[in-house]
Structure formats: C-alpha cells, structure tokens
Specification:
By secondary structure, this protein is mainly alpha-helical. The protein has one domain (about 20-75). It is built from 3 helices and no strands. It has helices at about 20-40, 40-55, 60-75. Helix 1 (about 20-40) runs antiparallel to helix 2 and helix 2 (about 40-55) packs antiparallel against helix 3 (about 60-75). The relative contact order is 0.15. The mean pLDDT is about 90.
Length: about 80
C-alpha cells in the first residue's frame, strides 16, 4: 500500500498542519483503498474515479486506478 503524509491533525504548527481539502482527500483515499485491499477492484475503481473527479492531479489515485483496471482485466480473462 502507498502512504502519503498530508500533515498532522494535532498540531498548532502551520507548517505541519493538514491543509485545505487534505482531510477529504485522505478519507476518500482510505475508503477506495479499503475496497482495493479486500479485492473488490471494480468498486475500488469506481471510488478512485470519484476521487479523481474531486482531485484530478492525485498521483496515488491515478496509480491505483490503473492497478484496479489490470486486476479487473485479469479476473475477466
């Protein structure tokens, strides 16, 4: 699994604090990743696409969406 540090929630230091929509990004990533880890690649892909609608430049979602597509193809083959 890929982890990306977005900040710390329990800090007063503005350099370390979670910024803007990062809480939403983290929650959406956690949700999609849970489906991926369970092997529910079609649902994970749907959730990664939704994440990319909100955060189109997110490299983690792009990478894992591609991995979902490979897994779904392997199952369908």
């Amino acid at each position: 699994m890929i982890y990306q540090l977005l900040g710390f929630t329990d800090t007063d230091d503005p350099e370390l604090a979670v910024r803007g929509d990062d809480v939403t990004l983290a929650a959406m990533t956690r949700d999609a990743s849970a489906h991926f880890e369970r092997g529910d690649f079609a649902e994970a892909a749907r959730r990664y696409r939704k994440l990319l609608d909100a955060f189109p430049d997110d490299p983690v979602a792009k990478s894992l969406l591609a991995a979902c597509a490979q897994e779904v193809q392997a199952v369908d083959a």
